[in-house]
Amino acid sequence: MARATVHDLARAAGVSLATIDRVLNRRGGVRPATIEKVEQAMARLNYRRDMAAAMLAKQQEYRFVFLVPIGVNTFMRNLANEATRLSDLNAADRISIRVVEIPPFDDEKLAAILNGLDGSDTSGVAVVATENAQVRQAIDRLAERGIPVVTLVSDVPASRRAHFVGIDNSAAGRTAGSLMGRFLRGRSGRIAVLAGSMLLRDHVERHFGFERVLRTEYPDLVTLPVIEGRDNGAIVEDVLGALLDRHPDIIGLYSLGGGNRGVIAALNKRHAGGRICVIAHELTAHCREALIDGTFDAILNQDPGHEARSAMRVLRALTDGQPIDQGQERIRIDIYLRDNLP
Amino acid sequence: MARATVHDLARAAGVSLATIDRVLNRRGGVRPATIEKVEQAMARLNYRRDMAAAMLAKQQEYRFVFLVPIGVNTFMRNLANEATRLSDLNAADRISIRVVEIPPFDDEKLAAILNGLDGSDTSGVAVVATENAQVRQAIDRLAERGIPVVTLVSDVPASRRAHFVGIDNSAAGRTAGSLMGRFLRGRSGRIAVLAGSMLLRDHVERHFGFERVLRTEYPDLVTLPVIEGRDNGAIVEDVLGALLDRHPDIIGLYSLGGGNRGVIAALNKRHAGGRICVIAHELTAHCREALIDGTFDAILNQDPGHEARSAMRVLRALTDGQPIDQGQERIRIDIYLRDNLP
DNA sequence: CTGAAAGCGCTTACAG
DNA sequence: CTGAAAGCGCTTACAG
């Protein structure tokens, strides 16, 4: 027997299509007794709504905005590209994604951009946010206007963002610590830690997780104070180079932010590649090469394609009031060695 | 301006809706000149087909069959459960998945089941296949009948399956070898390798990759001949137990198949947990525990949820003649340490 | 080789 | 609080 439609429901419950729709979509203004009748019919006929038909009738359009600090950061550029690609791929489903570039490390501008978003033009926002009072307030304001916001890559848990699309960054830090500890088994010495900025929550959390594991499980490895490279290759090369010169006894490096081209340059200039165990983040083209030639030992990665798709699915679910499949939307911490490179 | 519809196209090209549809779906029987006109109109109006409307009009139903050797294997049971869950979640999109249990290690039965599939009732097949002439022929026969087949978890590359949904198993083996080599840095000794059956392509490939890395990069680690446990905890406990008793100098174990409950039991009985570096596959409940309590050092995993969803998406794309997003459909080799457990 | 008309299963004003 | 009717953008027999 074919599957039940709204017409079948209407007949079975003795009401009109409009009433069926009101009950189905909880629009209210229906007598409890009528609701009851309809719900019984739904159960009896095992009714399941046809999404395609609903989409068509509703003429729903999803206009999502992705705010990404593209700048010089390869990972962010990949993320932006994936979002743009998604927009094309899903045009047939009436989903469009506008990628807006935001200046990196500029909370005020970001807040201004968020506040300037046109509600009639955007049905959801994904943002690589920084944790700042103005930014938080701007997110909350969008949420109040009924525009769902998801944070991307770095979370702002205190805000009213509906969801976070990204990895568990303290788990990533712990993983880096554990790999470092195992790869350097039996040795003791200093470990350098390079971040982009300790004003970024994701960087802080990675650092926290890393320190925690080293201190509790590998006390022979002593971390130096974090240095910051602003995710910028040139700055990274400078600050890391200076550190390496100051501490010739460094045996490990955890690069938990961007600007890894600077890491590679600094290491190569000192012929230190291979003698220092390096764990870095994000499988960009240059990191990939460094992994293959042995300069890096492991890369922790978050897949920008998955993150873009996840943000899109989550925003759509939020717009439709549908549930989110947590299993599917959990972004995993990929570990890459030379041997499992894609 | 609102997006163009088939009506707009028809008006612009000066033809009827039926002709538009013929050109859009390449049904043939249209004069080249007419096709040309329509295609120009499409380009001019930037026409993009509305999937929801097409789905509704076509009354397309996707009836997929997933053939899984559920047996005693926890991973396979998880895979089957995920497929069942998908069926519910996607009922609104007219996708149904029938999960059929196949007997493990029984090529003839599997071939018979494949041959017995009712073409009118199934629009695509996903199968955890074994590499056997009869099975291959059965797959080819389905492909000839126009029913797309994807292989799941273990591939049959010589067949006419349209796609493989699973990890690169020799890369997984290499990864295990590399982790083993690094975790045992500086030590030398024997490494045990436990498979389910060397008649399974995925197991053979993992073994190959593992051996390759150990022999070329870690010559101080010497692998013993593979033992087979048929993915069955009880058998695994026996054969591995016997091996451990025979070789008290084993310092590492690569468990590349199922039945890891048997591995845990054999190690615990001999108080060998922790002293032997263990790398296993699939993050099932017991493996997870073993990772946390230190019996296992790392788990390589393929996410059954991702695999089920990927198989479903690929089968749908094949049914519709749509392209496959290779980036999205690549199944990754997850590496889990205690620190990045989900 | 081409077209007119009906229909897919929903939602949406609008009227009462 | 409820209903009749039109419409969303496609596809599909059927007729010519």
From TrEMBL, chains A, B:
GO terms for molecular function: DNA-binding transcription factor activity; transcription cis-regulatory region binding. CDD domains: HTH_LacI, PBP1_sugar_binding. Residues 4-58 form the HTH lacI-type domain. InterPro entries: HTH_LacI (IPR000843), Lambda_DNA-bd_dom_sf (IPR010982), Peripla_BP_I (IPR028082), SBP_2_dom (IPR025997). It comes from the Bacteria. The lineage of its organism: Bacteria, Pseudomonadati, Pseudomonadota, Alphaproteobacteria, Hyphomicrobiales. This is LacI family transcriptional regulator. The keyword Transcription applies. Keywords: DNA-binding, Transcription, Transcription regulation.
